UniProtKB/TrEMBL annotation:
PROSITE patterns to which the protein is assigned, alphabetical: TYR_RECOMBINASE
Domain Tyr recombinase residues, every copy: 1-72
Organism name: Candidatus Magnetoglobus multicellularis str. Araruama
Taxonomic path: Bacteria, Pseudomonadati, Thermodesulfobacteriota, Desulfobacteria, Desulfobacterales
GO annotation terms (biological process): DNA integration; DNA recombination
Keywords: DNA recombination
Descriptive protein name: Tyr recombinase domain-containing protein
Keyword DNA-binding: no
GO molecular function: DNA binding
InterPro entries with a match to the protein in the record: DNA_brk_join_enz, Integrase-like_cat_sf, Integrase_catalytic
Length: 100
């Protein structure tokens, strides 16, 4: 059934179908779309019916955009919040200078 309708769709818009359309391709595409949308791997595992999340992690490993985002987020500059006002810092510096 899938093959029948995929052929009809390809006949109308071949450029939309770079390869063969199979149930596995649709399943893989749906998993990738869920992952790219930020859906947790546990939920994707359950959706796909995988016994282990390790199987589902294959999708995360195969997506370069997800890798890039993870590296970008991990390397983001982390700056502490200002805990002291300018006056408090000046008072501290004055106190330290007097202590020397």
């Amino acid at each position: 059934m899938l093959s029948k309708y995929a052929k009809k769709a390809m006949h109308n818009n071949r450029e939309l179908f770079p390869g063969k359309v199979t149930a596995h391709v649709l399943r893989h595409s749906k998993a990738m779309h869920l992952l790219q949308s930020g859906v947790n791997l546990i939920y994707i595992r359950d959706f796909l019916g995988h016994a282990s999340v390790t199987t589902t992690e294959i999708y995360a490993k195969s997506n370069p955009e997800i890798k890039r985002k993870a590296i970008e987020e991990a390397s983001a500059e982390v700056l502490p919040d200002e805990k002291f006002s300018v006056e408090e810092k000046e008072d501290l510096f004055d106190w330290l200078k007097k202590s020397i």
